[in-house]
Design a protein that fits this description.
Layout: H1 5-22, H2 26-41, H3 47-64, H4 73-87, H5 100-115, H6 117-136
C-alpha cells in the first residue's frame, strides 16, 4: 500500500478546517477528545496507559485552573512529579538507549497511574458530568 502524502495533507487540512469551526464549542471539543481517549485505548499494549496519561494531564490542568479541586494535592504533586521525570534529561536509564531508555519512564508513569487510580476514576466521572452540563446549556 502506497501512502500519498498529498492526499494525507488534504485530509489534514480538511480536518483542521472542521476543527477551527468547533474550537469555540467546548462540548464538541470534549466529545472529540473523549473519542480520542476511546480510540487510544484500542492501541494494543499501550492504549490504556496513553489514554490515562491524557486523563492525568487533564486532571492536573483542572486542579491548577481551580476547575477541579476534589483531588488530593499530594496526588496532583505525584502526577506532576512523574511528568517532570518524563521530560527531564537526567533519567535513571538514558533515553538515548533504544527501548531500555523508555523503560524507566514507563515504570515511573505506571507507578503514578497506579497511585492515582482512584482519583483518576473520580476525575473521569466529574469530567463526564461537565460534558453533559455543557450539552444541556
Amino acid at each position: 500500500m502506497d501512502i500519498d502524502l498529498n492526499q494525507i495533507t488534504s485530509i489534514l487540512e480538511d480536518n483542521a478546517s472542521q476543527a477551527e469551526s468547533i474550537l469555540n464549542d467546548p462540548a464538541q471539543v470534549d466529545g472529540i477528545l473523549g473519542q480520542l481517549g476511546d480510540k487510544l485505548k484500542e492501541v494494543p499494549g499501550v492504549g490504556e496507559p496513553i489514554a490515562n496519561l491524557l486523563l492525568m494531564v487533564d486532571m492536573v490542568k483542572g486542579y491548577v485552573t481551580k476547575q477541579y479541586t476534589k483531588v488530593s494535592p499530594k496526588v496532583v504533586a505525584l502526577v506532576l512529579g512523574s511528568f517532570i521525570y518524563l521530560v527531564k534529561k537526567d533519567d535513571l536509564i538514558p533515553d538515548k538507549i533504544p527501548l531500555l531508555g523508555a523503560a524507566d519512564d514507563l515504570l515511573v508513569l505506571g507507578l503514578a497511574l497506579k497511585l492515582s487510580e482512584d482519583e483518576l476514576k473520580e476525575f473521569k466521572k466529574w469530567q463526564k458530568a461537565q460534558a453533559r452540563k455543557s450539552k444541556v446549556q
